[in-house]
């Protein structure tokens, strides 16, 4: 037997595994690295977050990646080169984090790498009837495995696509295993570049569980800030948006998109919600001359409205569930205030209450997905479109 296959078999047979989960989102501020102790699998899964760090990207690296991000005219040579470079960069950052934590890489069982999304193209976005749902994450798993000496599981989203999903969001799998609670309906709300949530019914019936994108989270606000305020990557504490006033004409135009009429689950990305989308809305609403602060205030309301509408549709026939927030948007006080004001009967919390750092949650998710690939079996989510019952990820061996 190949020595690496033998090692993989041994890891899968363990009662508990040390898994590093990685996440690099659309904000591209850095690589989230979560060291997780995963015990058992399936309905018996337990996860403990041992260490977490965000290793920041250098400006030139971030600019390099953004030069091909979400672009239909991306330079194919650059895509090819960055597929390898991102893998090497992520390996370097992992080894640096392990050094900070005084942990020998040989003690890590597996790395679970999300990669860097550079284009997301569900059918609802590309509209080409002869083409399937598609998505592309780069940052080659073989490069990570060879550079770190650690077995790496990567490219999770392709199996989801192959089995009939849209490649996102994948939170449903980890959320159901770890965060479901008997007799308590829950919504796991993640506000990253795109806002998404998982609905977890209190009866723990997997056939009722789903994850869905609902619209923009931080992406439009961040893109606008980066364009108009050089050197600033986001509106810290919503200071600029709070100084503005929502423009109702612009808000109405922003909400005029077929995406919001599509049923759950669904996905989207900056391929739709970008500065061109904002510019068209401003032209159509005759609001091209309003202040930057008013635009940011309106964009914040736009994100909030999309989230609120989706939650209300999900819970229309039941009492409002407990909402656990995670992601960068939970640090936006104006956005959170708008959500709480619109949903006064809901109880808001964060995943801190569930012993998972909210900023680490997505990285932890991929550790859980890798754990299921190694030691679990597909959860039966029923025969619903968009929620395939699969285990995900491609396995890269170090040598």
TrEMBL record:
Coiled coil: none
Provenance organism: Pedobacter boryungensis
Keyword hit for Transmembrane helix: no
Similarity comment text for this entry: Belongs to the anhydro-N-acetylmuramic acid kinase family.
Enzyme class (EC, first level): transferase
Gene it is expressed from: anmK
Catalytic reaction annotation: 1,6-anhydro-N-acetyl-beta-muramate + ATP + H2O = N-acetyl-D-muramate 6-phosphate + ADP + H(+)
The protein's name in its UniProt record: Anhydro-N-acetylmuramic acid kinase
Pathway entry: Amino-sugar metabolism; 1,6-anhydro-N-acetylmuramate degradation; Cell wall biogenesis; peptidoglycan recycling
GO MF assignments: kinase activity
Key words, A-Z: ATP-binding, Carbohydrate metabolism, Kinase, Nucleotide-binding, Transferase
Function as written in the Swiss-Prot or TrEMBL entry: Catalyzes the specific phosphorylation of 1,6-anhydro-N-acetylmuramic acid (anhMurNAc) with the simultaneous cleavage of the 1,6-anhydro ring, generating MurNAc-6-P. Is required for the utilization of anhMurNAc either imported from the medium or derived from its own cell wall murein, and thus plays a role in cell wall recycling.
Listed EC numbers: 2.7.1.170
PANTHER family: ANHYDRO-N-ACETYLMURAMIC ACID KINASE
Entry superkingdom: Bacteria
Gene3D superfamilies cross-referenced by the UniProt entry: 3.30.420.40
Residues that hold ATP according to the record: 25-32
């Amino acid at each position: 037997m190949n020595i690496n296959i033998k090692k993989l078999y041994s890891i899968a047979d363990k009662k508990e595994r040390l898994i590093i989960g990685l996440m690099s989102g659309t904000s591209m501020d850095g690589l989230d690295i979560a060291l997780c102790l995963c015990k058992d699998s399936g309905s018996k899964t337990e996860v403990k977050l041992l260490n977490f760090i965000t290793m920041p990207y250098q400006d030139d690296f971030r600019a390099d990646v953004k030069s091909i991000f979400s672009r239909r005219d991306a330079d194919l040579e650059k895509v090819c080169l960055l597929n390898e470079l991102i893998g090497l960069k992520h390996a370097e950052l992992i080894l640096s984090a392990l050094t900070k934590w005084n942990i020998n890489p040989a003690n890590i069982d597996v790395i679970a790498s999300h990669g860097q999304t550079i284009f997301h193209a569900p059918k609802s976005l590309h509209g080409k009837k002869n083409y399937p749902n598609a998505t592309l994450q780069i940052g080659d798993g073989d490069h990570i495995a060879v550079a770190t000496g650690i077995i790496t599981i990567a490219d999770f989203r392709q199996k989801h696509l192959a089995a009939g999903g849209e490649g996102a969001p994948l939170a449903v799998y980890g959320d159901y295993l770890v965060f479901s609670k008997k007799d308590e309906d829950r919504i796991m709300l993640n506000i990253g570049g795109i806002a998404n949530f998982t609905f977890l019914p209190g009866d723990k019936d997997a056939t009722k569980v789903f994850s869905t994108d609902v619209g923009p989270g931080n992406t439009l606000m961040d893109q606008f800030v980066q364009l108009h305020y050089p050197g600033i990557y986001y509106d810290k504490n919503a200071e600029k948006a709070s100084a503005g006033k929502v423009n109702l004409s612009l808000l109405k135009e922003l909400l005029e998109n077929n995406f919001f009429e599509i049923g759950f689950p669904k996905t989207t990305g900056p391929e739709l919600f970008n500065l061109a989308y904002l510019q068209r809305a401003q032209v159509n609403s005759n609001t091209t001359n309003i202040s930057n602060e008013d635009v940011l205030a309106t964009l914040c309301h736009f994100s909030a409205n999309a989230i609120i509408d989706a939650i209300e549709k999900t819970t229309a026939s039941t009492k409002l569930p407990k909402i656990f927030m995670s992601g960068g948007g939970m640090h936006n006080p104006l956005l959170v205030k708008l959500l709480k004001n619109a949903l006064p009967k809901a109880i808001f919390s964060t995943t801190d209450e569930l012993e998972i750092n909210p900023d680490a949650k997505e990285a932890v998710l991929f550790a859980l997905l890798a754990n299921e690939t190694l030691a679990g079996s597909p959860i039966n989510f029923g025969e619903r479109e968009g929620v395939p019952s699969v285990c995900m990820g491609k396995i890269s061996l170090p040598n």
